[in-house]
Amino acid sequence: MTSFSIKQLSQKLTAGLAFVLIATSQAFAVTVEDSLGKHEFSQPATRVITLNWGATEEVLELGVTPVGIADIQGYKTWVARPEVPDGVIDVGTRAEPNVERLAELKPDLIIVGSMQQDMVARLSPIAPVLYFDNYRADHSNIQAIEHSFIELGKALGKGEEAKNRLKERDQILADLKRKVWQHFNGQPPKVGVARFGDANHARVYGDNSMPTAALDALGLKAALDIPSTTWGQVQKPIRDLAYLDGVLLYIRPLPNEDELFKRPLFRMMPFVSEGRIAPVKATWTYGGALSIRYLAEHFVDALTSMPADIQTAKSHGAAN
Amino acid sequence: MGGQTLSRHHSGQESLTTAFFSKAARNPVTAKPAMGFALGIIALLAISLWHLQTRTQLPLADQIGLWLGTPAESFSSFEYLYSDMPRLLMAIMAGAVLGLVGSMMQQLLQNPLVSPMTLGASSGAWLGLVAASVLVPGLAVIYREWWALSGAVLATGLCLLVARRSGFRGPPIVLSGMAVSLLFGALASALVLLNDQYVRNLFIWGAGDLAQGDWKEVLWLLPRLTPVLLLLIFAHRPLMLMRLGDQGARSRGLSLIPVMIALLLIALWLTASVISTVGLIGFIGLLTPQIARPFCGQSARQEMLASALIGAFLLCLTDIIALRATDFFGQLVPSGAAAALIGAPALIILAMKRKNSEKTPSEAIRHDNAFSDHAQQPWLLRSPKKARSIIALTAIAILCLAFFVFPKTVLNAGQAQTVWGWFWPEGYLWQLRWPRVLTAMMAGFGLAVAGTVLQRLIRNPLASPDILGLSAGATLSIVVFILIFGAQWLIFSPLIAFGGSFAVLALLLFLGKKQSFTPGIMVLTGIALTALLDAILQFTLASGTEEVFSLLLWMSGSTYKVTDQQAIILTVGVLILSVLTLVWHRALTLIAISDDVAQARGINLGKTRGWLLTLIAGICALITAVIGPVSFIGLLSPHLANLLGAKRILPQIVLASIAGASLLVLSDWVGRVALYPVQISAGVIASLIGGSYFIYLLTRQKL
How far apart are CA A296 and CA A288, in angstroms? Predict the structure, then answer.
C-alpha cells in the first residue's frame, strides 16, 4: 500500500515536472534531421517509443525512459547496457512491432532504424517518426550513428547533452587509447575482431562495423582486410584467418570454447600457437553512438591481458 | 510431337513405374558394368586430387608424404592434414551415402521424386536444432548431432506413419513429405523469428558447409555409416523383386512391409547421420540416381553403387566450386548452396530429356481416384443445405472475430494493461485493421480458386499452387535481390515478387508447351525451384546479418505491412482473375475426367491448360507479391468444399473460396492475438493449422 502510493506520488511529481518543463520551454523549437529530411519540433518529446535497440540504448543514455521499446527481453539479453527501467512496455518484435499497441500508448515520438524503413508511412499518423538509416554499405556507419545521436538528442530537448556525452565518450576513448599504447610501449599490434560461429566458421568484423570503429578510436590498425558491407561483417571459414597479421580478439559468448581450442588445426594456427588471441566480454556489436565506448573498454581489457612484447607475424603477410 | 508425348493414363501404379524404371534397363551401356565402374572410380580419384589442390600450396611430393604418414611440421602441412584431407573425405562420404540412399529409396518406393530430403528429413533436423537452441541453448551445441538426428527421425517417421496404409507407395508418401516439411519448416521459422539471436550459429549448419578443422567429425561419422554395407548386401534382392510389382514380389516370398520398414529405417539413419554432421545438403540424393539409372538400371546393387560413385563425384565437384567462390567473394559460399545451384537446373534438364519416355516422373504422384466419393461420408455431407448454412455462419463469425475481438492496451495512471474483449475498433485502429483482414480474406479466396482449378487441371487432389513453384519463384527473386542490393529494397518487394512469379510462369509455359502442359514438368519445376530456394535462403541466413530477418518475415506470409492500396489492388485483381477462370468451367469439368474425354468433346488441351495456368499464375503472383508465400490454403480449401458436398466445378469453387478466405482470416487473427503484443504471421499459423489437418487427413486416407 505504502509503496503504491509512493509510486503514485512520484508519478504525479514526474507529470508535474514534465508540465513545468513544457511550460518553461515555450520557446523550444528545434529542427531535427533524420534520413528522410528535416522535422520541426515545437516541444521536446517525452513519450518516446524506440523500435530498434540502437535507438533504445541512445535514448536511455540521454536519461529518458522510453514509454515502449521493441523486444525488451532480447534487449536485456543481447544489449544489456544501459539497463531498461521497470515499467517500460514491450511493443512486440523489432521487425513487426505491434502498431495497434503503439497507437494506444499515445507516443509523441517514434524512433525507427534501418530495419523498419518501410514502417514510416504506417507510423506517421500516430506520432512524428524519426528514421535513422544508420547501417548501410555506402556510407560510414559510425558517422551516421553519431550524427543521429545528436539529432535524436535535439528531439528530446537534450541536444547539448548529447554533444557533451559524445565529448565525454571521446575523452574516455582517448584515455583508453593512451592505456593500450602505453601497454604495448607505443607499438600496438594490428587487431582483428571475430565471433566464432561453430568449430569451422567465424563472423569477422571489417570496415563499417562498430568493432572497427572502436579500433579506429583506439588508433589500432585492422589485422584483416574485410570489405565494407551493410553491417560490416562477413562469414568466413576459420581457416582463412590463419595468416592473420597481428592479434585476434574473439567476442564471447562462445559455447564450447574448450572444444574449439582442442582442435588440432586451430591449435596450430600461428596466432593461436603464439598466443596472439584473447577473448572479449560479451558485447553488442550493432549498438548506438556510446556503445563504442563499451566495445573499446572490453577490447582494451583483452589487449592489456596480453604480454607487451607480443610478436606480430611478419613472414606471411596479410591474411587472404 | 505434342500428340505423341501426350501422356496416357494407366490405371495401375505398377505399370506406370515399371515403365519408368525398365526404360533404363534396355539401355545398352549396361553391357559392361565393370568397365563403367572402373571409369567412375578413376574419375572420382581424379576429382579428389583436384579437390585437394584447391587450397593447398604444398608440392605434390609433400602431399604424398603426408598421405603416407610423414608427420606434419609446417603449418601448411597441418592445414593439409587437418582441413583439406578430412574435407575431401567428408565430401566423398556424404556424397556417396546421399547418392546411395537416394537410389535405394527411389527403387524401393518406385518413385523417382523420393529422396531423404523430400521425406522431411532436412526440415526435421532443422527444427530439432532450432528448437534445442531456443529451449536448451547450453545443450544444443554439445549434442548437435543428436538433436538433428531426433528431428529428422521424427519428421520422416511422421511421414512414413502417414503413408503406411498405402504401403509407402505412390502419391501419399511424396505429398506427406511435402506437408511434413512445410509444417516443420513453419514451426522452425516461427521459432527463428521470435528468437533470432539464439539461433544465429545454426545458420551455417543450415547452409551445409563441408569445412573441417579436425578428423573428429569424419571419425564420428564413419562408424555410423556401416549400415551402408547392409544395404549393399541385403537390399539387392528385395529391390529387384519389387520391380515385378507388389503382387509379383509377394508371390516370390517377399514379405513386403517389414522389408520396406527395415530398409527405410536404415536409409533414415544414414541420412540423419550425414546431415547432422555436414548440414543441409540437398539435391545429391534426388539427382544422383537419375543420372545413374540410364547407365546401370539393370541391377539394383549396381544402381546403388553407381549412385554412390556419382554422388561422391558430384559433391566433390560442387565443393570445389564452393571453395573457389568463397575465395572469390571473400565470404563463405557454403557447399550446400553450390550443390543447389547446379542441382536445380540439372534436375529440370534431366526431366526434359526424358520427355519422350512414356511417363514423366511426377506422374508417380498422380492420384487415380481423384474425385471419387469417399467411402465414409462425413456428417456434414448428410445434409448439404444445413452444411452450407453452417459454413456461411462460420465464415461470418470468423470475420467478426477478426475485426472486433482483440486485446487492447489501456493506459492506467501511466501503467499499461492488456485488456481482452469485444471492442469496436476506433479511428486509427480501424484504419490499421481493415487492410489486413481484407488482404487475408482475398488471399485465402484467391489461393482457394487457384487450388481448385489446378487440382482439376492436373487431376490430382493433392496439387496446390505451391508445387508449381510460383511462390518459390517470387520468393527466390526477392531473396536474390536483397542478397545483392540490401534490405532497403524490400519496399519494392511486390514488384520484384511479381516479376519472379512471371519468370517462373514463362519457364513453365516454355517447358510445358511441347508437352501440352502435362503435369509432370510443372511439378518437377516446382520441386526443383523450391529446393533451390531453400538452399539460397539458407545461404543468405548464413551471412548472419540483420536483414535476413526482414526476409524471413516476408517469407512467413504476413499481412502486417499491407497498405490500403495493396489491399484494394489485391481484391480487384483476385476477383477479376477468379471470374475469368470460370470462362473455362466446362473445359475444367471435362479435363478433370480425362484428356481423352476432353479432346473428344473438342477441347484444345494445350491452349486451355496454357490459359488456365496463366490465370492461376496471375492469382498466385499477386498474392505472393502482397503477403508472401502462404501454404496449404490452396491445397485444403478445394478439399473442404468437396467434403461439404460440392462435386461440380461451380459450387466447388464458391465453397472452396469461402473456406479459403475464412481459413486465412482466422490464421491472421490467431497470429495477431495469440502472443500479443508479439505478432505471428498468418502464413505460419496457416501452415500449422493446415499442415496438421492435412496430415490428419492423410493418416485417415481421406485424400
Answer: 13
Taking an 8 Å cut-off on Cβ atoms, the answer to whether B75 and A270 are in contact is yes
CA distances from B497 to B210, B476, B501 (A): 32, 8, 6
- Do B83 and B24 share a structural domain? yes
CATH of the domain at B454: 1.10.3470.10
Which residues in chain B are contacts of A264 at CB distance < 8 A? 78, 82, 213-214
Same domain, residue pair B435 and B578: yes
Closest by Cβ to A103, choosing from B428, B542, B676: B428
H-helix segments, A30-185 = 53-61, 72-74, 99-104, 120-123, 141-155, 159-183
Domains, chain A: 21-157 (3.40.50.1980), 186-304 (3.40.50.1980)
Cβ neighbours of B676 in A, within 8 Å: 98, 101
- Asked whether residue B373 is domain-assigned, the answer is no
Residue B40 maps to a domain: yes
ipTM of the complex: 0.77
Rounded Cα distance, B114 and B364, in Å: 10
Q: B38 with B112, same domain? A: yes
Cell of A154: 535535439
Q: Do B360 and B399 have their domain in common? A: no
Average pLDDT in chain B? 79
Q: Are residues B360 and B419 in the same domain?
A: no
For residue B373, the tally of other CB atoms under 10 A from its CB is 10
The residue among A207 and A164 whose pLDDT is bigger is A164
Residue B449 is predicted with a pLDDT of 94
Lowest-pLDDT choice from A136-145, A262-271, B467-476, B693-702: B693-702
Task: Report the candidate in A201, A311, A239 with the shortest Cα–Cα distance to residue B75.
Answer: A239
Name the residue facing A89 among B416, B429, B432 (closest C-beta): B416
| Same domain, residue pair B361 and B424 | no
Q: Are residues B437 and B356 in the same domain?
A: no
Say how far apart CA B476 and CA B482 lie, in whole Å.
10
Mean pLDDT of B177-206: 78
B chain contacts of residue A87, beta-carbon cutoff 8 Å? 414-415
pTM: 0.79
pLDDT, one tens digit per residue, over B66-106 is 888 888 888 889 889 999 999 999 999 999 999 999 999 88
Whether the CB of A137 is below 8 Å from some CB of chain B: the reply is yes
pLDDT above 60 (res B18) = no
Number of domains chain B contains: 2
Residue B140: closest C-alpha in chain A = A255
Question: Cβ contacts (< 8 Å) between B421 and chain A: which residues?
Answer: none
Alpha-carbon torsion (B665, B669, B674, B679), positive or negative: positive
Q: Where does the pLDDT of residue B556 fall: very low under 50, low under 70, confident under 90, or very high at 90 and above?
A: confident
Say if residue B444 is in the same domain as residue B580.
yes
d(CA B143, nearest CA chain A) in Å = 11
- Do A101 and B429 make contact, defined as CB atoms within 8 angstroms? no
- Taking contacts as CB-CB distances below 8 angstroms, the residues of chain B near A198 are 141, 201, 204-205
Burial class (CB in 10 A: 0-12, 13-18, 19+), B427: exposed
Residue B382 resides in a domain? no
pLDDT at B248 over 50: yes
Name the minimum distance, in Å, from the CA of B72 to any CA of chain A. Answer: 11
Contact list in A for residue B194 (CB cut-off 8 A) is 93
Show the domain range for B307: 2-365
In a domain, B375, yes or no: no
Which of B311, B331, B365 is a domain's end point?
B365
Task: Measure B78 CA to nearest chain A CA, in Å.
Answer: 6
